[in-house]
Design goal:
This protein has helices at about 20-50, 50-85, 90-120, 130-160, 165-180. By secondary structure, it is mainly alpha-helical. The protein is elongated and about 55 Å long. The N and C termini lie far apart (about 40 Å).
Length: about 180
Amino acid sequence: MTSRVSLPGLRTPGAGFDQPFEMLAACHERVARTLDLLQRLQAHVAEKGVDDNARQAARDVLRYFDKAAPLHHEDEELHIFPPLLRGDIDAATQAVVRQLQQDHVDMAACWAQARRPLLALVDGVQDAFSPAESALLQRFAAMYDQHLQHEDRLIYPTAKAVVDAPSQQTMGREMAARRMPTP
């Protein structure tokens, strides 16, 4: 295979947990790269079939959406959405927050289905995506893309304006603690 399917340039974000909003934005960059990888994986499998690079790309997508994405959603559910649902935030923004909360539920349900063909590909059980599986993977990516746009354009800037510095410090510590391995 001449072009790699694997995730290009996985890098550690420049922001740390002491800058939680920047860390959340870096997570969105990783989501976008992983969704791009998923799209390239589908094209590769359709054109060239399954090979080691395709299986590794599928593992990378699975790892991200099985582990990192749920933690990211939890960060938002605990630290971003609550301050926007109380206080002096306008009703339109609160409606977007409620939609994003529902998106988390819907995306988790869609992922539960979408991960199956990826696992089958990794396990060598299948060597192509059916049209229905491709449509499901595309729907999953589209759901995420729309979700990220709302958060990046409206929700994160609004939350950053209302979450004070001490609360941001607490937020960062709690985000880091959720990612620490349990003994």
